[in-house]
Design a protein that fits this description.
Elements lengths: L8 E5 L7 E5 L2 E6 L5 H10 L1 H16 L12 E2 L6 E8 L5 E4 L3 E6 L6 H32 L5 E5 L6 E3 L4 E5 L7 H13 L8 H10 L3 H18 L2
């Protein structure tokens, strides 16, 4: 049995319970333990059902995130670039296409007279900018890690993804969610490594997680960041 569990959880001993069961709550997983069950057996049950716990906790936090306001790309607001809020300036310019510049703050320029489509144009320009930025960052991460175990992706693609942070295709194409630009740098690195390790293991077995840990020993902190903040980040840019 693993020595740690990456999801927040608590154990509740219940004299009335007849079976081990898990309860998903917004703050984490509750493990309900009957009197005759040892804590070691209960923890083994928790690990055995980790995938279920992850899915339920993600679903619950997604529902909570839906009540939060959407990101408004407007002058004076902020963007959570690399996990910290930075100023956002939006202006009109004489060019025919939206443009994005970053110098410690984001400057989004949209064509003059397009105020009615400002949100759509600004979001599209930001997506194009983030695609190029993430691909460059991801390629550097791959260069640092791929040679160690000969894990070479065919290509890296950055996409809009409604519920996933990354995927690894059957031909070893790595796909990344563009919103990783707005997560901490270590989270982007974790997702790239996660998908890189799927080139070797097409599952979430113990061998897979061991390989992830060989690349990034502290990866559980990044997994927890995504569980706690990922749904809100997805919702923020819907």
């Amino acid at each position: 049995m693993p020595v740690s569990f990456s999801l927040p959880y608590r154990i509740r001993h219940s004299k009335r319970a007849k079976h081990l069961r898990l309860v998903a709550r917004p703050e984490g997983i509750e493990l309900v333990v009957p009197p005759a069950i040892s804590e070691d057996r209960a923890l083994a049950f928790l690990h055995q059902h980790r995938d279920w716990a992850e899915r339920k906790l993600s679903e619950m936090r997604s529902m909570t995130a839906r009540s939060q306001p959407l990101q408004r790309l407007e002058n004076g607001s902020t963007l959570p670039f690399q996990g910290r809020e930075v100023p956002l300036l939006v202006r009109e310019h004489a060019g025919r296409r939206p443009q994005v510049q970053y110098d410690g703050r984001f400057l989004v320029s949209v064509p003059a007279g397009s105020s009615g489509n400002l949100q759509r144009l600004a979001l599209s320009a930001l997506f194009d900018w983030a695609k190029a930025w993430i691909r460059e960052q991801a390629e550097a991460i791959v260069q640092r890690h791929a040679n160690r175990f000969r894990l070479y992706p065919r290509q890296i693609r950055v996409k809009r993804m409604s519920s996933r942070w990354g995927s690894c295709g059957p031909r070893n194409d790595i796909n990344l969610n563009w919103l990783l630009a707005f997560a901490p740098p270590s989270v982007l690195e974790y997702v790239v490594i996660h998908e890189l390790c799927h080139i070797r293991h097409r599952n979430h077995s113990a061998d897979f997680w061991q390989l992830v840990a060989q690349h990034l020993p502290g990866y559980s902190a990044e997994r927890q960041w995504l569980r706690r903040n990922g749904a809100a980040l997805l919702r923020r840019f819907e």
